[in-house]
Every structure is written in C-alpha cells, then in structure tokens.
Amino acid sequence: MSGSARRTVRRRTFVLGATAAAGSAALAGPLAPTATAATFGYADDGANYVIDTGANLVFKVSKTNGDLTSLVYRGTEYQGYGGKNSHIESGLGTSTVTVKQSGSTILVSVAYGTLKHYYAARSGENNVYLWTNKADTSVSATRYIVRVKAGLFLNDEPDSYTYAPTTIEAADVFAKSDGQTRSKHYSKLRVADYDYIGWKTGSVGLWMVRSNHEKASGGPFYRSLLRHQSADGGGLYEILYYGENQTESQRFGLQGPYVIAFTDGGAPSSSLFHGSLTTSWADSLGISGYVASGGRGKVAGVGISGRDTAYAYTVGIANSAAQYWASARSSDGWFSIAGVLPGTYTLTVFKGELAVHTMSVTVTAGGTTTLNTIAIPSSNDPSNASAIWRIGNWDGTPSGFKNADLMTYAHPSDPRAAAWTGNVVIGSGSETSAFPAYIWKDVNSGLLVYFKLTAAQAAAAHTLRIGVTTAYANGRPQVVVNDAWTSPIPSPPTQPSTRSLTVGSYRGNNYTFTYSVPASAWLTDTSQYNVLKINVVSGSGTTSYLSAGTAIDALDLLT
Questions:
Q1: Sign of the Cα pseudo-torsion (188, 191, 192, 194, in order)
Q2: I need a surface site. Which of 207, 287, 316, 509 has the fewest CB within 10 A?
Q3: Is 188 in a helix, a strand, or coil?
C-alpha cells in the first residue's frame, strides 16, 4: 500500500494528571481560526444552504432534508458515492432546515419529527461541527455517515473491500482473490482506542473526529464499524447507536460535537479531540439538549488498590442517560472524569475489560465528586483464586488465545488464521497460544484439555470455570470429564442477539460458567492424563462459523 494513501488512526494516549473522560464535554473557549476569514458566510442556491468557512472548505446542506450534499476542499469535491449524500442513517425525509449566522459561527439546524440535527462552521476553519439529538425511537438514528467519492483515498485495509469481489457472509463480508477477508466491520478498534478515523494522501486528510459518545451505548470497549471503502466510494461514521453485538439499550439526547475535519495531509488538530475540545462559542446557539460546561460535573478518584499491575485499568460511569470513562494511572490508579451530566451513576472498575468492582457515584452540576482510594476485594478478581491449572488469564478478553488478535479485523475463514483445532496439554508451555479464541458447535466443538492430578487432588471434587466474553446463537460450553462425567447443559446468559464472532468483535457480556466436578470423575492413576472435553451446545445457529459459538476469556480448575 502506498504511503500516500494509507489509513491513519490516532490511538488514545492518556496524559497523567489530565482528564481521560470519554464523555468529556467541557465546553469553554473558541478555537483559533486558521486563516483570515475574508469570504466567511453563507448563501442560498435555491436547493441548498452554501457555507463558505473562509478557509479552504465550502459545504452545502440540503434545504429539503438536511443532507450534506457537497464538501469542496481546495476546489475538489469529496462528497458522494452511489448517488447518495452524507446524512443521518440513510437520509431523513422532508425536514425543516434553517440557517443562522452569529458572529464567527454559522449554524444550520435540521428538524425531522422528534430528531434535531445541527451543522456548524467557524470562520477560518476547515471543519464541520455536528450535533445530533435523538429524542426517542420514532426516528431511526444509528449513525451519521460521510460518503466520499470513489478513487480519492484508495487503500487495502481490513475495512476496505475495493479489491475483494467475493461475498462470503451476508452482504458485508468479502474475500480477495488470495482469500484474505475484508469488511466494513473490521476496524480493529474499540471506542476507547481512537480519537479520529479517516484517510490521507500526501496533500489532503479527511477525518471524522469522534464525539465523547456520552449518548452512545456499549461503553469504552465497544467495537463497531467506523469506516469503509469500496469501488463505489468510502464512508466515515459517527456511531450514534449501533445494534451489532450491542450490550446496552439505546440512550437518547444530544450527541456531539463530532467533527468532519480536512487537513493538508496531516492528522487533525488535537484541539478537536473530545477531551480537549472547547466550544463555548456554541453555548448561546440554541442547540436542543446542549449542556454547557457550567452545567456539568466531575468525578475524581485518588487511587485504586488491589490492582494487578500487569494490566491496564479503566474506570467507567454509566446510567440510562449517559456514559463516560477514563484510564486509571498505572502507578496508583488515580483517575479523573470531567464534563459529566448531573446524575447518579454506576461506577465500574475494569481490569482489562473485566469488571472487578462496582459502586454508586453522584455527580452535581459545577461540582467535583472526590472518591477516596477504591479497594478492589481480592475475591472480585477471579485470577486471585488458587488453581491447579489455568489457561489464559482473567481480563475479559480472549487476548493470548489462538487467532484472538486477527479476529478483530478478519473473518474466521481467513487463510491467515491458524487452524481452529487446539487440543492442549497442561504443562506444555503453549496452553493459551494453542487454544482457540473461539469455539463453534459446527467447527471445533469437542476441544480436549489433557492434565494430570496428584493423588490428593484426584481424591477431591473440584470446580471448573470457563469464562466467556460473548456468545453467538446462545452457544455455551458443556463439559465431559474422562467420558465418566458429563455436566448438565448450562442456561445461556444474556448476550447480544446479532452476529459477533464473524464481524470483528468478541465484546459481549463477560460471564463465568462453573462446573462442580465430583471426585469420581478423576483418574486415580496419577501417571495418566485426565481428559476434559469442551463441547458447544445450543439449539440455535446455522452452520460453520454462523453455528452457535462463544469467545473464551480464561478457563481453570480450582484447588
């Protein structure tokens, strides 16, 4: 892939002593203009409001439905593929569209039923600021998509299927001639991993800078489509509420600002990132649902004890109205979450992606809720339990298991994947890397784990635990020990109802299955290997990689 066309994604870096709140909406202070705004203003061409930012960007908004119908940067049109505009969902119907200039800001307001949407331009900036207020489910609003003309940013990234002509699943997973798979779902990234997504050449960059996601759902580790590119063109997404492998209900209210940003080939300014973006200039614009910085509060924690320092910890707060999160400082667990809407939240401490502590916290407008050191009880981290053997570690992800990383940007059938078989022997040293990250009823059910027990261990009953991170079609593990004991079929836990394992996400609801294995199941000859068979059971699913399946976090046999 040419360096002039490669994808660039900024992964979040948490700065010690600075807020890392995913929901930070601290709004104070204008951005400095990039150029003298000699032509800043708007016009009406009959069908559209035409906004000239006074820099190098001119864009048009339809007066009929609020679509973004044109994006011209330095004289080149970037908007449009397949005869479609950029818009909420797949476009709104006939809407009320108005425009107003307030000093150095132009605001276009779109009203469609209960949904309100806004575009803002600032004098001298090559940016379009957007807000979306979804009041209820009467108007579907899962995304805003910027549709980009074909041929401008050619690439061969996992989420580009320009060169992948063969459809292998649904209508959104494709294969190249060499078998490598591509899909709009294969972004590789969790929400917490990126501030912006887009493309660049040597002379232009086009980016979607994400919002704080306070009104989105799924938390910091949620994975979804972020962009795609096909022969028809490309798409950049701001996710408002996406149902694929979703673990939470939809939240309502104002989400934004998110920003369409043009550059001369570099990354967008960090001043646009949600943790540092200041928009006091929007305080008086009359945006529905807008809450300025003075109406928001802050949560600060002096530290977290009981951590496993080999892992990163994240602190999230969430309720039915909003969600926020921050990274805990590695040295002591200090954290700060700013720009929080007032209310009472459930605070969750995550080891990796595994919840290990919860508590309630209340936030008030203009105030700071300071928390003393949060102590994680030892029993809350399953890694602290003494085990005869353990495969993987308890961090809420399949990290370290066979094919785990690849599955965030490829289909399980991809030729780069190692064989999904994986019988393992405890003590071999490769137990985790040889054990498949995913198990399907129709693909690799019946995996075997070989292990020896001492005479004392074989004389006692033991608890077997299998942790999973999501499941498809109610797939769950049933175990057989030495063909002498078979566990009852466990009830399926609550998991997302959509595809997951084939669309780049293991992130569902972490759940631990426990099995009480009687002493009579073990071999009394300590020189022989006991054999644990793990089957996937379900009455749902279809075949192959769409048969019932599950993703593994860890499994162990306790002392």
A1: positive
A2: 509
A3: coil
Pairing of strands 368-371, 297-301: parallel
Give 385: exposed, middle or buried? Use CB within 10 Å, 0-12, 13-18, 19+: middle
Q: Retrieve residue 227's tokens.
A: 């962009």
What are the structure tokens assigned to 403, written together?
A: 């094919």
pLDDT of residue 90: 94
- Region of residue 277 (left: phi > 0; alpha: psi -120 to 50; beta: else): beta
pTM for the model:
0.92
Q: How far apart are CA 289 and CA 294, in angstroms?
A: 14
CA triplet 110, 112, 117: central angle to 5 degrees? 35
Q: Which residues contact 59 (CB under 8 A, 6 or more apart)?
A: 50, 51, 53, 68, 70, 71, 72, 79, 119, 121, 128
Name residue 350's beta-bridge partners. Answer: 314, 355
* DSSP state, residue 126: S
From residue 471, give the alpha-carbon distance in Å to each of 44, 168, 184.
52, 21, 21
The residue among 221, 271, 201, 261 whose CA lies nearest residue 8 is 201
- Whether residue 379 contacts residue 306, with contact meaning beta carbons closer than 8 Å, is answered with no
Distance of CA 16 to the CA centre of its chain: 23
Query: What pLDDT shows up at residue 408?
Result: 97
Instruction: Report residue 53 as tokens.
Output: 């930012």
Token digits of residue 338? 């700013």
Q: Answer for the pair 274, 24: CB distance below 8 angstroms, yes or no.
A: yes
State the pLDDT at residue 38.
Answer: 52
Residues constituting the chain: 559
pLDDT of residue 81: 87
Element (H, E) at 300: strand 297-301
Q: Tokens 């469609």 label which residue?
A: 112
Please state whether beta strands 313-318 and 343-351 pair in parallel, antiparallel, or not at all (unpaired): antiparallel
SS3 of 271, please? helix
SS3 label, residue 383? helix
Cis check for the bond before 257: say yes or no (omega within 30 of 0). yes
The H-assigned helical ranges of 400-452 are: 431-434
282, 242 in Cβ contact below 8 A? no
Whole-number pLDDT of residue 245: 94
Helix (H) or strand (E) holding 456: helix 455-458
Which pLDDT score is estimated for 163? 87
Q: Is 247 in contact with 225 (CB distance < 8 Å)?
A: no
- What does pLDDT average to in each consecutive run of 10 residues of the chain (559 residues)? 38 28 33 51 98 98 98 97 93 97 98 98 98 97 96 93 93 96 96 97 97 98 95 95 96 98 97 90 97 97 98 98 98 98 98 98 98 98 98 98 98 98 96 98 98 98 98 98 98 97 98 98 98 97 98 97
